[in-house]
Amino acid sequence: MRAPSHCLFSSVPCTLIFYRNEFSSHDHDNSPPHTPLPTLVFRAMEVHRQHHDPLTIQHCTLSNIKSGGCPEDCHYCPQSAHFHTGVQPEPLMTIDSVMQQAAAARDAGSTRFCMGAAWREVRDGGDFNTVLEMVRQVRELGMEACVTLGMITPEQAARLAEAGLTSYNHNLDTSPEFYEEIITTRTYEDRLSTIANVRGAGIEVCCGGILGMGESRADRVALLCELANLNPYPESVPINALVPVEGTPLEDRPVIDGIEMVRAVAVARILMPTARVRLSAGRTDMSDETQALCFLAGANSIFTGDKLLTTPNPGTNHDETLLTKLGMKRMQ
Ligand code: SF4
């Protein structure tokens, strides 16, 4: 594991060193933790309150603008052409239909609209030009615009920046050590290179990972250290829980323990104080209480709607009810 290159631990030395040691020395989720959860969450809450309104959650909406048929073999993904999951390849959506979704998302309270295309990489030409126009029109709605399109070159990143893109999503997914167990069609370095291209164009980086794929606690903390070591660290950090989908190689993975999610969110918050930490996929398998703990630990964004790409999501009504119950509010 690469140690943080700058003084990440200075403000919270004991908690994180214990936490890192805990992850390094115990590989099982049911091993006794070195850092009591209340201690860890308390530290995360302190950091959270220094940089954010702890009662406010940003709502984002993610649209699957080009579904299925992806040549990559990400073992968690039902959209990979390598697996038989029932997801049919579809062409890029039209600008009009995407804009209808974006307007509906804005009217329902989302301030960020994310567009995902199941591509290995961006190819110059008609489809990319269409995506650029989608970005322009989402920005005209007054929303933040984020896209996830696979690998991109510096030139393509510059064109996205010109179109007004707020943020580009490209997840590291897991630790460098565990990565080859999950994806074989591109390398960790490929991921880092696209992230550097995004940064080079002046676009914000959205980058996180997925927990519950069979990785150890050491892998989880290594992922968080990799993210925190990006210079600067991502403005947006999605923390996903694996949703095991039938037909994928990870279909039999047990759903990750909620307390492990809370721990990961807390460490992400402590390591990346100003980032927006997004509690992303897998919320349908989490209780309201687990989600509430994640918000206490520093998560300050969720994705709304009934679906997240191809997997289920709690739905706007449930989220509104939960936030009301917690006395929290949507970011305006
Ligand atoms: S690159 Fe994206 S769409 Fe393609 S298989 Fe991986 S996660 Fe799925």
* Tally of strands: 12
Bound molecules: iron/sulfur cluster
In DSSP terms (H or I, runs of 4 or more residues), the helix count works out at 11
CATH class: Alpha Beta
Measured on Cα atoms, how large is the radius of gyration?
19 Å
Mean pLDDT equals 90
How many domain units? 1
Helix content: 25-40%
The description of the largest β-sheet is:
10 strands, parallel
Distance between the termini: 39 Å
Unreliable stretches (pLDDT < 50, length at least 5) are: 1-19, 21-26
| Topology pattern, helix = H, strand = E | HHEHEHEHEHHEEHEHEHEEEHE
What does this structure look like?
This protein is α/β, with parallel strands linked by helices. It has one domain: Alpha-Beta Barrel (TIM Barrel), CATH 3.20.20.70. The protein is 39% helix and 15% strand. The chain is built from eleven helices and twelve strands. The strands form two sheets. Strands 1, 2, 3, 4, 5, 6, 7, 8, 9 and 12 form a ten-stranded parallel sheet that branches. The chain has a two-stranded antiparallel ribbon with strand order 10-11. A hairpin with a 2-residue loop joins strand 10 and strand 11 (311-312). The longest helix is centred in the N-terminal third of the chain and has 15 residues, at 37-51. The chain is globular and about 55 Å long. The N and C termini lie far apart (39 Å). 47% of the residues are buried. Residues 70, 72, 74, 77, 79-80, 118, 150 line the site of iron/sulfur cluster.
